[in-house]
Structure formats: C-alpha cells, structure tokens
Specification:
This protein is mostly helical. It is about 45% helix and about 0% strand. The protein contains 6 helices and no strands. Helix 3 crosses helix 6 and helix 5 packs across helix 6.
Length: about 180
Amino acid sequence: MSDAHHEESAIKTPKQLIMAILAGFLVPIICIVLLVLYVTNDKTIGAGSDGLSPEAVSARVKPVADEGFTLKDVNAPKVLKTGEEVYKMACAACHATGAAGAPKFGDAGAWGPRIAQGYETLAKHAIQGIRAMPAKGGNPDLDDVEVERVVVLLANSAGAKFAEPKVPAPAAAPAAAK
C-alpha cells in the first residue's frame, strides 16, 4: 500500500482552471475599481441646475447666526409691549388654561375676589409674585409698566374698570461735569 495522500481538486477540467485564474484576477480588480469610484464620487450639478447661481451660493455661505434671530441694540430705548403682547408671551400659559390655580382670562367668578383687593394689590402681586405665580410671570425682563398693563387686561376682561397705567417719563440724562 502506498502512503500517498490522494486529494481531489475542485478543478477537474482546463475550462475550470481558466475560470479560476480569471476570477482570481478580475474579482479584486473589480472591487478596487468600485471602491475608487465610491471614494472619488462627487455630487455633480447637472446642466440647467441653479446650484451655482449667485442666490444659491449666498444661501449656502450665509452665516448660521442669521437664521431666526432678532438682534437688539442694548443701548436703544426699551419699547414697552402692550398688555396683549405680554399676555400671549408670558401669561397665557397659565391664565388661558387655569394651570396651578391661576384664574382664567375672562372668568369673572375667579377674578372677582382679586379685583375687590384693588388695582395696587393686584399689580404688586403680579410684579413680586404670589403663591404659584412667579414674579413678573416668570419673565424678569418685563418692565413693571408692562406687567401692570397685563393686570389691567386680565382684570378688565373679568369685569373690572381699571385704567391703563401711565408710562413714567424717562429720566433726563445727567449733565456732563465741567
């Protein structure tokens, strides 16, 4: 008996040998070509596209900070908001829904005892805060006059007859020292 090791090959014909050799060379070459195409593929703009128009270019290079921000001049005089503007901005979250026991807009039953306390007391509570309501409705940037305007709006919606608060005259700038 022979100790020769008999192994059978998967390639039995010359045609199979040629196919194996071609596959050994072509498969890696095709993979390399596809990989190069993938890496170097740039998004190209087709003919007739407006991607390079001045408007499209300026829209792409416009600073992100310009999107949706209103810049304020801190040295400019403050423009006071109306009672409706402040109500929508700071007060409606609670007074429109009655959250945390807040009296609803136009609810005469809930506002009656508060109106009976008087305008000064209502304004003081709105400015300084009371119970679950934070000072100035949670917006410390509001001026006292703006808060007083909201007090008048809310109380008058429930039957009060409060007058609109007077805006104090701006203080005169001090004279320059000589």
